[in-house]
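Key result, reporting period 2: structure in, sequence out.
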């Protein structure tokens, strides 16, 4: 589990936001409560400008950042690197960062709660670019994360700007259906940049893209039989190298990662009383119902039958109410 960020109710910094062509001071606290108080919709978008230094800080939410102009040194706990127009990067909520010597650094900062906006998006999780940008790059401990960063050309930046402007307009106007439009547009934006990353980095073999390709493949095929040799070929690594790097990156083995996905899928299928335990085992990629039951018990502390019974009983109680 990631270490919770050190946040408080104190201001962690100020920026200048563009509103109707003018710059207004914008305070940043780094907390959900202060920066995005809608509990069921933790989202905010700001077009800001930085000059000078912005102290190291962390926040409860994640940030998707687009650099539109100016320059600065982005300072993180891992490394420092120069920013320029066209750069796109993600900062996860537990990562301390700041800016040094910013010179008219124009940013669009999209702040969001990943648990509300990214969790359970199966098509996104099948994209190599998604794992690279939103999972690996924000927490990588080598320069590969920045060297493999996404950099948009002017045409791509213009397309991203159109989506961002639409989100900002919906965010500001408070119209009916606002949350739906923002969430849909945000998914479009994330899909757009993940596609670009996947397309531009598909032939690279950095540690970051190696693992992103492997996890993307697993997400697409975990219901099937997956051999470690096949994953090794995808990453251009031997099986032992793959297992070692995967463990270092995700703190689990490829087999354990695959089984976790299968168990999660099984939990959803167990809500359907029409499917037998054996059918669910095979649909989720397990070779037998007995092995499925063993793995299920190891992960959740109960067997599939008791899980189903507990879930269906809970549903029946709610229906009676």
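The corresponding designed sequence is given below.
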């Amino acid at each position: 589990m990631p270490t919770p960020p050190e946040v408080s109710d104190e201001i962690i910094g100020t920026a200048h936001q563009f509103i109707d062509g003018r710059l207004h001071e914008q305070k940043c606290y780094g907390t959900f409560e202060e920066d995005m108080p809608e509990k069921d919709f933790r989202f905010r978008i700001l077009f800001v400008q930085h000059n000078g230094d912005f102290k190291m800080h962390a926040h409860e939410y994640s940030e998707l950042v687009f650099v539109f102009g100016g320059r600065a040194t982005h300072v993180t706990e891992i490394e420092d690197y120069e920013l320029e127009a066209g750069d796109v990067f993600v900062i996860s909520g537990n990562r301390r960062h700041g800016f040094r010597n910013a010179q008219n650094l124009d940013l669009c900062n999209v702040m969001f709660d990943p648990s509300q906006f990214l969790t359970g998006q199966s098509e996104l999780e099948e994209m190599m670019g998604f794992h690279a940008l939103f999972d690996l790059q924000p927490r990588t401990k080598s320069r590969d994360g920045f060297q493999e960063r996404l950099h948009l050309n002017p045409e791509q930046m213009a397309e991203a700007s159109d989506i961002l402007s639409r989100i900002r307009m919906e965010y500001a106007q408070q119209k009916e259906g606002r949350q739906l439009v923002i969430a849909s547009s945000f998914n479009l934006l994330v899909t757009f940049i993940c596609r670009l990353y996947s397309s531009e980095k598909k032939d690279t073999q950095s540690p970051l893209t190696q693992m992103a390709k492997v996890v993307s493949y697993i997400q697409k095929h975990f219901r099937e039989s997956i051999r470690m040799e096949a994953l090794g070929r995808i990453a251009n690594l031997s099986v032992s190298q793959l297992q070692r790097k995967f463990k270092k990156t995700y703190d689990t083995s490829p087999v354990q990662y695959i089984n976790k996905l299968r168990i999660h899928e099984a939990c959803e299928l167990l809500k359907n009383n029409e499917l037998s335990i054996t059918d669910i085992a095979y649909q989720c990629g397990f070779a037998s119902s007995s092995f499925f039951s063993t793995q299920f018990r190891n992960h959740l502390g109960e067997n599939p039958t008791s899980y189903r019974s507990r879930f269906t009983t809970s549903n029946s109680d709610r229906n009676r109410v």
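The longest strand covers residues 97-112. The first helix runs from residue 32 to 35. This case is discussed further under Risks and Mitigation.
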